[in-house]
Design a protein that fits this description.
The structure holds two protein chains of two kinds. By secondary structure, chain A is an all-alpha fold. In chain A, 73% of the residues lie in helices and 1% in strands. In chain A, strands 1-2 form a two-stranded antiparallel sheet. In chain A, strand 1 and strand 2 form a beta hairpin. In chain A, helix 3 packs antiparallel against helix 4 and helix 6 packs antiparallel against helix 11. Chain A is globular. The two termini of chain A are 17 Å apart. In chain A, 64% of the residues are buried. By secondary structure, chain B is mainly α. In chain B, helix 1 runs antiparallel to helix 2 and helix 2 runs antiparallel to helix 3. Chain B contains three helices and no strands. Chain B has one domain: Orthogonal Bundle (Helix Hairpins). The chains are: A mainly alpha, B mainly alpha. Chains A and B meet through helix 6, helix 7 and helix 10 of A and helix 1, helix 2 and helix 3 of B. Chain B: It is found in: Cell membrane; Membrane.
């Protein structure tokens, strides 16, 4: 903010070390992906995996950092950022594992890691950005590569349609949001979130409400909140299953981090009545997602509506994040649980889809006998999504409900509990298909080391975090400290 | 004679309204892209006007404007490539032709 004079004092490359590792690898992989032939086509995915692990190693120390600003107040170094960046990196690692198996020996094999790394960097930047310009930039950076990922198989008809819808909705929603951000700048004369927070106190309420209303459109798009969710079912259904998994996890986690930072830093108190607006959106999102999910016959579409409902549960705690200190760790815990169970579910769907060429509910019929391990992993993921103890999804839902009750949103907590009960029926319906119906096809499962690793990691963590929630809860507690 | 801030904001709001209407009402993907481009120009105009009237000493807002232009360029590159690919496969760029995925 101080301009060119203090340039030397603003540079702090350590603050962006994880991002630089990933962005550098992604850039180096652009030509490498073009050259790769034969056995070497596996190399980009392996390098991307190494880069992600190195970036995670560089992010971990920031979990205990004293909150500070880098790059002239445009970038935050705080535990909050480190936590969400780790979540995003972990999501990318698991997605990469299942993508590597899915596109094994196909034309797309060397290309997907490039787009995946770019989207990951965008998401990580969004979790740390404290400047309106950077927020616009990183939101686009997480979206553009996601569009390209959905269109990875270029001749795939449904994927083309999905990408067109994703792109057009995304372009419009993010432009509307950036227009809203310009009003935050105009009202306060600053692009820095905390300076905006200080300046908005004396600003005209109507303008603040207008700006907030426009800004929510962009975040609502990324987080699939009703009424900005329209793209999600089509994109998740049209995209290849592991990519739908990635798109359902990484942009969403990044947008939650970005929205939380914006609300807590730039809109302290309850400016523009954001807690009430978000509470109403949470109620609409979870109810709509669950009711529509009840009538789905496509697994990817079912998971899409389920992920819309899950976003509603998380938003419930965001609505009280300003006044309940327990809300931030609860969201942090749930984002991790959501990542694990959603990616596990999409990985199994990927295996099924690769084997049978379809993702209809009938394709998992008798899976319990055909592929016991995958069936067990999908069962675990679905039960966790439904909130059955002792899995991570259960503990996470309890934390979210407690936060809502502490924030005097008892009506919303009751509605959420009712929603979880309704949701159980469509999750159990899939499990029943797997175990209590005769298989229609004799074949087993698409094999792959990547699938196995992804499923093993997710299932083990879902169980471990569910049985001992205090460990993850402690880390999420660390990650609740943010620059204010 | 100086033009007041309100005048810029009104033009910005008009651009925004035109862009949004184009995005919602047009059926051709190319025209929708044009609507998005108009939306981005509304953002640019707003930022530069606000910069001139509320924080003329802080050049960070100009960087914001440059970022918006950059984002627009990248968006068009991806968008036009996508429309071209779709057109080659199906011989149409009307968005209504792409409604095979279940509602």
């Amino acid at each position: 903010m101080t301009g060119g004079v203090a340039m030397g004092g603003c540079m702090d490359l350590g603050a962006v070390a994880p991002e630089m590792v990933l962005a550098g690898t992604a850039l180096a992989l652009v030509p490498a992906a073009g050259w790769a032939r034969g056995r070497w086509r596996r190399l980009p995915a392996a390098l991307a995996l190494l880069a992600l692990l190195a970036a995670m190693g560089l992010t971990v120390p920031m979990l205990t950092a004293t909150p500070r600003e880098a790059f002239c107040g445009t970038y935050a170094v705080d535990p909050f950022r480190a936590f969400y960046q780790l979540v995003i990196e972990a999501g990318a690692v698991v997605s990469l594992l299942s993508l590597a198996s899915h596109f094994r020996a196909s034309e797309q094999e060397p290309h997907h890691p490039v787009a995946l790394l770019m989207a990951t960097v965008g998401g990580m930047g969004l979790a740390a950005a404290t400047d309106l310009g950077l927020i616009v930039l990183f939101l686009q950076m997480v979206s553009f590569p996601s569009y390209l990922l959905v269109l990875l198989v270029r001749s795939d008809g449904p994927a083309q349609e999905a990408t067109l819808k994703y792109f057009l909705y995304g372009a419009a929603a993010l432009a509307v949001m950036a227009y809203g951000l310009t009003f935050l700048f105009g009202l306060t004369g600053s692009l820095n979130l905390r300076a905006i927070g200080a300046g908005l106190a004396g600003a005209d309420r109507a303008w603040v409400a207008l700006a907030f209303g426009l800004v929510v459109v962009g975040y609502g798009f990324e987080m699939t909140l009703v009424p900005f969710h329209v793209w999600a079912p089509d994109v998740f259904q049209g995209g290849t299953a592991p990519i739908s998994g990635f798109v359902s996890v990484v942009p969403k986690a990044a947008a939650f981090a970005g929205l939380l930072r914006l609300l807590l830093e730039a809109m302290p108190g309850a400016l523009a009545a954001w807690p009430s607006v978000l509470a109403l959106m949470a109620a609409a999102t979870m109810t709509f997602g669950n009711l529509v999910a009840l009538r789905q016959a496509s697994l990817k579409r079912l998971l899409a509506y389920s992920s819309i409902a899950q976003a509603g549960y998380m938003l419930m705690a965001v609505a009280v994040a300003g006044r309940v200190p327990q809300a931030l760790p609860a969201i942090g815990y749930y984002v991790v649980a959501y990542l694990l169970m959603n990616l596990a579910a999409f990985t199994v769907v990927a295996q099924v889809e690769r084997m049978s060429g379809s993702d209809g509910l009938a394709t998992v019929r008798g899976l319990g006998r055909r592929a016991p391990w995958s069936a067990a992993a999908l069962t675990l993921a679905l039960l966790s999504l439904a909130g059955v103890p002792p899995l991570a999804g259960f503990a996470g839902k309890v934390f979210l409900l407690l936060a809502a009750i502490d924030g005097d949103l008892a009506w919303l907590a009751v509605l959420a509990a009712a929603n979880m009960a309704v949701a159980l029926s469509y999750y159990v319906a899939v499990i029943a298909e797997m175990y209590f119906r005769e298989p229609e096809r004799p074949e087993g499962m698409a094999p792959g080391v990547g699938y196995a690793f992804a499923l093993g990691l997710c299932s083990a963590a879902t169980l471990a975090f569910g049985i001992a929630p205090s460990v993850l809860r402690g880390v999420a507690q660390l990650g609740a400290t943010l620059l204010r | 004679m100086t033009v007041p801030l309100t005048a810029y904001l009104v033009v910005g709001a008009l651009l925004f309204a035109i862009g949004l209407y184009t995005v919602v009402a047009q059926r051709s993907a190319v025209m929708i892209l044009m609507g998005v481009e108009v939306l981005l120009n509304a953002i640019g105009l707003n930022v530069v006007a606000f910069w001139r009237f509320t924080a003329p000493g802080d050049y960070a807002a100009q960087i914001f404007a440059i970022l918006v232009v950059t984002v627009g360029a990248v968006e068009m590159a991806i968008g036009l490539a996508l429309v071209l690919l779709l057109y080659r496969q199906r011989r149409t760029a009307e968005v209504d032709a792409y409604a095979d995925l279940k509602r």
